[in-house]
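> tool_call: predict_assembly(chains=four)
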Amino acid sequence: MRRGYARGARCRSPVRPGHWEVRARVERFVEPALLLLLRERPMHGYELIERIPEVAGEDVRVDVGNLYRILRALEEEGIVSSEWSADLPGPAKRTYELTEAGSRLLDRWAEALREAQRVVAGFLRRYEQGGR
Amino acid sequence: MRRGYARGARCRSPVRPGHWEVRARVERFVEPALLLLLRERPMHGYELIERIPEVAGEDVRVDVGNLYRILRALEEEGIVSSEWSADLPGPAKRTYELTEAGSRLLDRWAEALREAQRVVAGFLRRYEQGGR
DNA sequence: GTCTTACATATGTCTTTTACACTTAGAGGT
DNA sequence: ACCTCTAAGTGTAAAAGACATATGTAAGAC
Protein backbone atom coordinates (compact mmCIF):
# COMPACT_ATOMS: atom_id res chain seq x y z
CA MET A 1 0.00 0.00 0.00
CA ARG A 2 1.26 3.39 -0.83
CA ARG A 3 0.23 6.87 -1.67
CA GLY A 4 -3.22 8.34 -1.86
CA TYR A 5 -6.37 7.29 -0.08
CA ALA A 6 -9.73 6.18 -1.32
CA ARG A 7 -13.40 7.02 -1.25
CA GLY A 8 -15.62 6.89 1.80
CA ALA A 9 -14.66 10.07 3.56
CA ARG A 10 -16.13 10.44 6.99
CA CYS A 11 -18.91 12.99 6.97
CA ARG A 12 -18.73 15.54 9.71
CA SER A 13 -21.62 17.85 8.82
CA PRO A 14 -19.74 20.98 7.96
CA VAL A 15 -22.48 23.58 7.97
CA ARG A 16 -20.51 25.55 5.44
CA PRO A 17 -17.33 24.13 4.00
CA GLY A 18 -14.66 24.69 6.60
CA HIS A 19 -17.20 25.34 9.34
CA TRP A 20 -17.72 22.32 11.49
CA GLU A 21 -20.26 22.21 14.16
CA VAL A 22 -18.45 21.95 17.48
CA ARG A 23 -20.54 20.78 20.38
CA ALA A 24 -18.63 19.06 23.17
CA ARG A 25 -21.42 17.09 24.78
CA VAL A 26 -21.10 14.15 27.11
CA GLU A 27 -22.21 10.86 25.56
CA ARG A 28 -25.64 9.70 26.73
CA PHE A 29 -25.89 12.59 29.16
CA VAL A 30 -29.70 12.47 29.19
CA GLU A 31 -29.44 9.20 31.06
CA PRO A 32 -27.84 10.54 34.25
CA ALA A 33 -30.02 13.63 33.89
CA LEU A 34 -33.13 11.47 34.06
CA LEU A 35 -31.80 9.62 37.09
CA LEU A 36 -30.98 12.84 38.92
CA LEU A 37 -34.43 14.32 38.29
CA LEU A 38 -36.14 11.13 39.35
CA ARG A 39 -34.11 10.92 42.53
CA GLU A 40 -35.59 14.25 43.56
CA ARG A 41 -39.14 13.01 43.05
CA PRO A 42 -41.14 10.66 40.80
CA MET A 43 -42.57 12.19 37.66
CA HIS A 44 -43.93 11.27 34.28
CA GLY A 45 -42.08 11.35 30.97
CA TYR A 46 -43.39 14.61 29.65
CA GLU A 47 -42.39 16.44 32.80
CA LEU A 48 -38.91 14.94 32.55
CA ILE A 49 -38.61 16.28 29.01
CA GLU A 50 -39.46 19.77 30.20
CA ARG A 51 -37.03 19.64 33.11
CA ILE A 52 -34.03 18.01 31.45
CA PRO A 53 -32.54 21.32 30.29
CA GLU A 54 -32.24 22.32 33.96
CA VAL A 55 -29.67 19.60 34.58
CA ALA A 56 -28.25 18.87 31.13
CA GLY A 57 -27.87 22.42 29.82
CA GLU A 58 -30.36 24.88 28.40
CA ASP A 59 -29.39 24.25 24.79
CA VAL A 60 -29.88 20.49 24.72
CA ARG A 61 -32.76 19.45 22.58
CA VAL A 62 -33.81 16.08 23.95
CA ASP A 63 -35.31 13.82 21.37
CA VAL A 64 -38.71 12.95 22.70
CA GLY A 65 -38.89 9.62 20.93
CA ASN A 66 -35.53 8.46 22.19
CA LEU A 67 -36.34 9.64 25.69
CA TYR A 68 -39.31 7.29 25.98
CA ARG A 69 -37.18 4.48 24.57
CA ILE A 70 -34.48 5.17 27.14
CA LEU A 71 -37.05 5.19 29.94
CA ARG A 72 -38.30 1.78 28.88
CA ALA A 73 -34.78 0.40 28.61
CA LEU A 74 -34.09 1.73 32.09
CA GLU A 75 -37.19 0.03 33.35
CA GLU A 76 -36.24 -3.29 31.77
CA GLU A 77 -32.97 -3.14 33.67
CA GLY A 78 -34.68 -2.27 36.92
CA ILE A 79 -33.21 1.23 37.11
CA VAL A 80 -36.64 2.84 37.22
CA SER A 81 -40.13 1.51 37.78
CA SER A 82 -43.33 2.93 36.37
CA GLU A 83 -47.06 2.70 36.40
CA TRP A 84 -49.99 4.35 34.71
CA SER A 85 -51.50 7.05 36.86
CA ALA A 86 -55.22 6.82 36.16
CA ASP A 87 -55.99 9.25 38.93
CA LEU A 88 -54.27 12.32 37.43
CA PRO A 89 -56.37 14.50 35.12
CA GLY A 90 -55.61 14.83 31.42
CA PRO A 91 -54.23 12.18 29.10
CA ALA A 92 -52.84 8.93 30.47
CA LYS A 93 -49.53 9.46 32.17
CA ARG A 94 -46.95 6.89 33.11
CA THR A 95 -45.22 7.94 36.30
CA TYR A 96 -41.60 6.91 36.76
CA GLU A 97 -39.78 6.33 40.00
CA LEU A 98 -36.10 5.64 40.74
CA THR A 99 -35.25 2.25 42.22
CA GLU A 100 -32.40 1.44 44.60
CA ALA A 101 -30.40 0.09 41.66
CA GLY A 102 -31.12 3.35 39.86
CA SER A 103 -29.78 5.35 42.75
CA ARG A 104 -26.56 3.33 42.71
CA LEU A 105 -26.28 3.79 38.94
CA LEU A 106 -26.58 7.54 39.42
CA ASP A 107 -23.73 7.38 41.92
CA ARG A 108 -21.59 5.63 39.34
CA TRP A 109 -22.50 8.27 36.77
CA ALA A 110 -21.51 11.02 39.17
CA GLU A 111 -18.13 9.41 39.72
CA ALA A 112 -17.62 8.94 35.97
CA LEU A 113 -18.56 12.58 35.37
CA ARG A 114 -16.07 13.76 37.95
CA GLU A 115 -13.39 11.77 36.12
CA ALA A 116 -14.49 13.33 32.83
CA GLN A 117 -14.16 16.75 34.45
CA ARG A 118 -10.57 15.93 35.38
CA VAL A 119 -9.73 14.84 31.84
CA VAL A 120 -11.27 17.92 30.24
CA ALA A 121 -9.63 20.19 32.80
CA GLY A 122 -6.29 18.64 31.90
CA PHE A 123 -6.97 19.21 28.24
CA LEU A 124 -7.84 22.86 28.81
CA ARG A 125 -4.75 23.43 30.94
CA ARG A 126 -2.58 22.05 28.19
CA TYR A 127 -4.48 24.14 25.65
CA GLU A 128 -3.89 27.33 27.60
CA GLN A 129 -0.22 26.60 28.10
CA GLY A 130 0.25 26.54 24.35
CA GLY A 131 -1.13 30.06 24.11
CA ARG A 132 -2.46 31.66 20.95
CA MET B 1 -52.98 4.01 22.24
CA ARG B 2 -53.02 2.69 25.70
CA ARG B 3 -51.25 0.41 28.08
CA GLY B 4 -48.11 -1.64 27.46
CA TYR B 5 -45.33 -1.03 25.03
CA ALA B 6 -43.96 -3.03 22.15
CA ARG B 7 -40.82 -4.70 20.85
CA GLY B 8 -37.66 -2.91 19.82
CA ALA B 9 -36.10 -2.11 23.16
CA ARG B 10 -33.02 0.04 22.92
CA CYS B 11 -29.89 -1.94 23.60
CA ARG B 12 -27.57 -0.45 26.18
CA SER B 13 -24.97 -3.18 26.53
CA PRO B 14 -25.47 -4.21 30.12
CA VAL B 15 -22.33 -6.18 30.88
CA ARG B 16 -24.29 -8.22 33.35
CA PRO B 17 -28.03 -7.69 33.69
CA GLY B 18 -28.47 -4.66 35.86
CA HIS B 19 -24.89 -3.56 35.36
CA TRP B 20 -24.58 -0.90 32.73
CA GLU B 21 -21.30 0.35 31.56
CA VAL B 22 -20.98 3.96 32.64
CA ARG B 23 -18.35 5.95 30.84
CA ALA B 24 -19.06 9.69 30.63
CA ARG B 25 -16.93 10.56 27.63
CA VAL B 26 -17.14 13.70 25.53
CA GLU B 27 -18.47 13.06 22.04
CA ARG B 28 -15.75 13.02 19.37
CA PHE B 29 -13.12 13.98 21.89
CA VAL B 30 -10.29 12.52 19.81
CA GLU B 31 -10.83 15.33 17.35
CA PRO B 32 -9.82 18.22 19.64
CA ALA B 33 -7.14 15.95 21.09
CA LEU B 34 -5.57 15.59 17.65
CA LEU B 35 -5.73 19.32 17.07
CA LEU B 36 -4.08 20.08 20.39
CA LEU B 37 -1.23 17.63 19.79
CA LEU B 38 -0.68 18.93 16.28
CA ARG B 39 -0.61 22.53 17.47
CA GLU B 40 2.37 21.64 19.63
CA ARG B 41 4.27 20.20 16.67
CA PRO B 42 3.63 18.30 13.43
CA MET B 43 3.69 14.54 13.69
CA HIS B 44 2.56 11.44 11.88
CA GLY B 45 -0.53 9.36 12.58
CA TYR B 46 1.08 6.57 14.52
CA GLU B 47 2.72 9.00 16.90
CA LEU B 48 -0.63 10.74 17.43
CA ILE B 49 -2.17 7.41 18.39
CA GLU B 50 0.50 6.87 21.02
CA ARG B 51 0.15 10.36 22.44
CA ILE B 52 -3.63 10.74 22.47
CA PRO B 53 -4.05 9.22 25.93
CA GLU B 54 -1.93 12.08 27.30
CA VAL B 55 -4.61 14.60 26.39
CA ALA B 56 -7.80 12.51 26.17
CA GLY B 57 -7.36 10.36 29.26
CA GLU B 58 -5.27 7.26 29.90
CA ASP B 59 -8.16 4.85 29.53
CA VAL B 60 -9.34 5.91 26.07
CA ARG B 61 -8.76 3.26 23.47
CA VAL B 62 -8.54 5.15 20.22
CA ASP B 63 -9.65 3.14 17.26
CA VAL B 64 -6.71 3.18 14.90
CA GLY B 65 -8.81 2.76 11.78
CA ASN B 66 -11.14 5.58 12.68
CA LEU B 67 -8.26 7.82 13.60
CA TYR B 68 -6.81 7.68 10.11
CA ARG B 69 -10.28 8.32 8.69
CA ILE B 70 -10.69 11.34 10.92
CA LEU B 71 -7.31 12.67 9.87
CA ARG B 72 -8.30 12.45 6.22
CA ALA B 73 -11.64 14.12 6.86
CA LEU B 74 -9.81 16.89 8.70
CA GLU B 75 -7.50 17.28 5.75
CA GLU B 76 -10.38 17.48 3.28
CA GLU B 77 -11.77 20.36 5.29
CA GLY B 78 -8.44 22.11 5.44
CA ILE B 79 -8.03 21.66 9.19
CA VAL B 80 -4.76 19.81 8.80
CA SER B 81 -2.38 19.30 5.90
CA SER B 82 -0.13 16.33 5.33
CA GLU B 83 2.59 14.92 3.18
CA TRP B 84 4.60 11.73 2.93
CA SER B 85 7.93 12.03 4.64
CA ALA B 86 10.29 10.00 2.50
CA ASP B 87 13.26 11.18 4.50
CA LEU B 88 12.38 9.58 7.84
CA PRO B 89 13.62 6.00 8.41
CA GLY B 90 11.27 3.05 8.70
CA PRO B 91 7.96 2.59 6.85
CA ALA B 92 6.39 5.43 4.94
CA LYS B 93 4.97 8.05 7.27
CA ARG B 94 2.48 10.74 6.49
CA THR B 95 3.26 13.78 8.59
CA TYR B 96 0.37 16.00 9.62
CA GLU B 97 0.45 19.67 10.39
CA LEU B 98 -2.18 22.02 11.78
CA THR B 99 -3.41 24.80 9.48
CA GLU B 100 -4.62 28.24 10.52
CA ALA B 101 -8.21 27.04 10.13
CA GLY B 102 -7.31 24.11 12.36
CA SER B 103 -5.98 26.40 15.03
CA ARG B 104 -9.24 28.37 14.99
CA LEU B 105 -11.24 25.14 15.18
CA LEU B 106 -9.24 24.13 18.24
CA ASP B 107 -10.14 27.46 19.83
CA ARG B 108 -13.81 26.77 19.24
CA TRP B 109 -13.42 23.31 20.75
CA ALA B 110 -11.78 24.79 23.83
CA GLU B 111 -14.66 27.20 24.29
CA ALA B 112 -17.21 24.39 23.81
CA LEU B 113 -15.35 22.24 26.33
CA ARG B 114 -15.37 25.04 28.89
CA GLU B 115 -19.14 25.28 28.44
CA ALA B 116 -19.43 21.50 28.87
CA GLN B 117 -17.42 21.81 32.09
CA ARG B 118 -19.94 24.35 33.39
CA VAL B 119 -22.88 22.08 32.58
CA VAL B 120 -21.32 19.04 34.22
CA ALA B 121 -20.29 21.07 37.25
CA GLY B 122 -23.89 22.22 37.61
CA PHE B 123 -25.07 18.63 37.40
CA LEU B 124 -22.62 17.50 40.07
CA ARG B 125 -23.59 20.36 42.40
CA ARG B 126 -27.22 19.38 42.11
CA TYR B 127 -26.27 15.75 42.62
CA GLU B 128 -24.41 16.52 45.83
CA GLN B 129 -27.20 18.69 47.18
CA GLY B 130 -29.53 15.73 47.03
CA GLY B 131 -27.25 13.70 49.28
CA ARG B 132 -27.40 9.95 49.57
C1' DG C 1 -70.74 20.21 17.28
C1' DT C 2 -66.36 20.20 14.98
C1' DC C 3 -61.85 22.48 14.93
C1' DT C 4 -57.69 23.60 16.76
C1' DT C 5 -54.24 23.42 20.22
C1' DA C 6 -51.75 21.48 24.17
C1' DC C 7 -50.54 17.38 26.68
C1' DA C 8 -48.71 12.65 26.71
C1' DT C 9 -46.82 8.45 24.89
C1' DA C 10 -45.25 6.19 21.48
C1' DT C 11 -43.04 3.94 16.61
C1' DG C 12 -40.27 4.12 12.21
C1' DT C 13 -36.29 5.16 10.04
C1' DC C 14 -32.07 7.40 8.72
C1' DT C 15 -27.48 9.36 9.74
C1' DT C 16 -23.54 9.88 12.56
C1' DT C 17 -20.31 8.05 15.70
C1' DT C 18 -17.88 4.34 17.72
C1' DA C 19 -16.16 -0.50 17.86
C1' DC C 20 -14.22 -4.57 16.09
C1' DA C 21 -11.77 -7.15 12.61
C1' DC C 22 -8.73 -7.42 9.07
C1' DT C 23 -5.07 -6.14 5.08
C1' DT C 24 -0.80 -4.24 3.11
C1' DA C 25 3.94 -3.08 3.33
C1' DG C 26 8.80 -1.66 4.82
C1' DA C 27 12.75 -2.48 8.02
C1' DG C 28 15.36 -5.05 11.34
C1' DG C 29 16.50 -9.04 13.98
C1' DT C 30 17.47 -14.29 14.41
C1' DA D 1 13.23 -17.72 5.31
C1' DC D 2 10.50 -16.24 9.14
C1' DC D 3 8.96 -13.22 12.82
C1' DT D 4 8.00 -8.86 14.99
C1' DC D 5 7.45 -3.97 15.18
C1' DT D 6 6.13 0.18 12.97
C1' DA D 7 2.90 2.64 9.90
C1' DA D 8 -1.23 3.37 7.22
C1' DG D 9 -5.08 1.83 5.67
C1' DT D 10 -10.16 -0.77 4.39
C1' DG D 11 -14.65 -3.21 5.60
C1' DT D 12 -18.43 -3.63 8.32
C1' DA D 13 -21.46 -3.82 12.32
C1' DA D 14 -23.30 -1.90 16.44
C1' DA D 15 -24.49 1.96 19.24
C1' DA D 16 -26.07 6.63 19.79
C1' DG D 17 -28.43 10.50 18.14
C1' DA D 18 -31.68 13.11 14.85
C1' DC D 19 -35.79 13.67 12.30
C1' DA D 20 -40.52 12.57 11.08
C1' DT D 21 -44.87 10.96 12.11
C1' DA D 22 -48.83 8.40 14.62
C1' DT D 23 -52.33 7.95 18.39
C1' DG D 24 -55.39 9.41 21.97
C1' DT D 25 -57.20 12.69 25.76
C1' DA D 26 -58.85 17.01 27.16
C1' DA D 27 -59.79 21.86 27.02
C1' DG D 28 -61.00 26.09 24.70
C1' DA D 29 -62.34 28.68 20.29
C1' DC D 30 -65.75 29.47 16.84
